[in-house]
């Protein structure tokens, strides 16, 4: 297997996406996670661009070990010197220098002739070579340059000591067959090509960044430049998780492998998404919410019989929480029965049919039926309340100054009593969570929250997804409400109920069999 080096530029090219700016402390945390993920090279920033970026690159160079650190620079002496200073304490380092090569860039951006550009490339690589052994050079906009000048530029920088040649598809223009063929021509036609490494750097303007990167690998490239979640300028860069899992899943066909540890992919993806405040598209391959979820009844039936019928990867090996079956209007009886059985409930045929009719009515209205809603339907069907607690009512007092206050009425179904709890916080969510926590018999940590608008206008519903942790496990609750605070409160309550049920289940709490001949374990 050919070893493909993964060059991660999330903290440089990825951060150049509008609104994706990171604080130096955030960069350091992400860099540590990238090293744990197993990337070969980290490009932590553009040192000359700001004092904060210089500090972040310098600190990452000092503190993050086991990975090569790359300083980024234009073909300008001041940029190069800044990148060299910022990375001087790294265990292993390189300099990445770029210079425009296409006619459109030379004529309208640099306003320089080809001869002038070649001289700049030579002199700046020679200057950098005095301080750094490993120098990566990128002819920017290479895919719109033309072979003659591209070859001339690459030969010039190799003569001056460049050791890695990165040929970028800067504007995402190339088709896979064109991009792969370009590398083949360069490797065959450029003098000195046998003494350097070749790298691919693709943008996703036409949605071809991963396909182009795979074409480059087939052509002989040994390094690919990527970003987590595919973040980056315009439509982004080649997605780390998509490229890595394409190689991992089809390694025999590609004859290639990487050093990435897949079990860390999901956690790194989530960290980058939250740090940049960039939500991940539901249908994003590998890490999207729907990537390993199935609603269609035919698919669900196949998955319940054998996961490989409709999944080519195991999400748990990627660190993705397992939530294979999503119940909605396309779900069949088999999937509903399976999910109900996970609650410890066995329904007879008559009860199952009654539940199925009610389920379809709810699914037509809400699109997706979440566990808390299904439990309520099952409870009505068997005349048993399955949730440990119900949020009966909640009120929040908020304002422009001071702490927010919340009052919650919560029913404990084990005793049949309703109690009032109150909480305060800097925000209304914190106040609601503080109040609800008081009703619980165990410690539960609020670990994550996602909010989505499901429609437009003043009467839009909000969907809240809340994750809690308890006893080392994570539990997710979902709720939809026109009042987004109520959606959060109900989602938190649903997640807490899951945690309580699981703990009681592990403790072996079993209720009596109801008189309607349904075998049921009461959590």
From TrEMBL:
InterPro entries: 2-IPM_HCS-like, 2-isopropylmalate_synth_dimer, AIPM/Hcit_synth_CS, Aldolase_TIM, LeuA/HCS_post-cat, LeuA_allosteric_dom_sf, LeuA_bact_synth, PYR_CT. Its EC number is 2.3.3.13. SMART domains: LeuA_dimer. Residues 4-266 form the Pyruvate carboxyltransferase domain. One of its GO terms (molecular function) is 2-isopropylmalate synthase activity. Pathway: Amino-acid biosynthesis; L-leucine biosynthesis; L-leucine from 3-methyl-2-oxobutanoate: step 1/4. One of its GO terms (biological process) is L-leucine biosynthetic process. Keywords: Amino-acid biosynthesis, Branched-chain amino acid biosynthesis, Leucine biosynthesis, Manganese, Metal-binding, Transferase. PANTHER family: 2-ISOPROPYLMALATE SYNTHASE 1, CHLOROPLASTIC-RELATED (PTHR10277:SF9), HOMOCITRATE SYNTHASE-RELATED (PTHR10277). This is 2-isopropylmalate synthase.
């Amino acid at each position: 297997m050919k070893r493909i080096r993964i060059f991660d530029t999330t903290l440089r090219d990825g951060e150049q996406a509008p609104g994706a700016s990171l604080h130096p402390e955030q960069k350091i945390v992400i860099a540590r996670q990238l090293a744990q993920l197993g990337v070969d090279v980290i490009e932590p920033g553009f040192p000359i661009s700001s004092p904060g970026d210089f500090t972040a690159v310098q600190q990452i160079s000092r503190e993050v070990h086991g990975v090569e650190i790359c300083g980024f620079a234009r073909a300008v002496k001041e940029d190069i010197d800044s990148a060299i200073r910022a990375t001087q304490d790294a265990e292993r380092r390189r300099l990445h220098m770029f210079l425009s090569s296409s006619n459109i860039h030379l004529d309208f951006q640099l306003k320089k002739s080809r001869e002038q550009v070649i001289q700049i490339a030579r002199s700046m690589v020679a200057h950098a070579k005095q301080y750094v052994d490993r120098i990566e050079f990128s002819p920017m906009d290479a895919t719109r340059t033309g072979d003659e000048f591209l070859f001339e530029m690459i030969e010039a920088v190799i003569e001056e000591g460049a050791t890695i040649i990165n040929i970028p598809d800067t504007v995402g223009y190339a088709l896979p067959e064109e991009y792969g063929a370009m590398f083949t021509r360069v490797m065959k036609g450029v003098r000195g090509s046998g003494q350097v490494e070749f790298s691919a750097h693709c943008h996703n303007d036409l949605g071809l960044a991963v396909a182009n990167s795979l074409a480059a690998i087939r052509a002989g490239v040994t390094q690919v430049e990527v970003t987590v979640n595919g973040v980056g300028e315009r439509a982004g860069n080649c997605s780390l998780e998509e490229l890595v899992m394409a190689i991992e899943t089809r390694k025999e066909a590609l004859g290639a492998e990487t050093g990435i540890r897949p079990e860390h992919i999901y956690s790194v993806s989530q960290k980058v998404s939250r740090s940049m405040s960039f939500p991940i598209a539901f249908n994003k391959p590998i890490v999207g919410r729907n990537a390993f979820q199935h609603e269609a009844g035919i698919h669900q039936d196949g998955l319940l019989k054998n996961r490989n019928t409709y999944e080519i990867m195991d999400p748990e090996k990627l660190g993705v929480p397992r939530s294979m079956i999503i119940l909605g209007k396309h779900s069949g009886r088999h999937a509903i029965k399976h999910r109900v059985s996970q609650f410890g409930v066995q329904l007879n045929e008559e009860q199952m049919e009654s539940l199925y009719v009610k389920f379809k009515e709810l699914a037509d209205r809400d699109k997706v039926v979440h566990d808390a809603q299904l439990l309520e339907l099952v409870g009505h069907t068997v005349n048993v309340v399955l949730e440990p607690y119900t949020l009966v009512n909640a009120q929040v007092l908020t304002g422009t100054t001071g702490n927010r206050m919340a009052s919650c009425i919560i029913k404990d179904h084990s005793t049949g009593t309703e109690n009032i709890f109150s909480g305060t916080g800097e925000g209304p969510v914190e106040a609601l969570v503080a109040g609800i926590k008081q009703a619980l018999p165990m410690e539960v940590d609020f670990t994550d929250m996602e909010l989505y608008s499901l429609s437009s206008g003043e009467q839009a519903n909000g969907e809240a997804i809340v994750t809690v942790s308890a006893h080392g496990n994570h539990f997710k609750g979902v709720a939809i409400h026109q009042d987004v605070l109520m959606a959060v409160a109900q989602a938190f309550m649903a997640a807490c109920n899951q945690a309580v049920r699981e703990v009681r289940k592990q403790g072996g709490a079993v209720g009596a069999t109801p008189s309607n001949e349904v075998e049921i374990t009461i959590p």
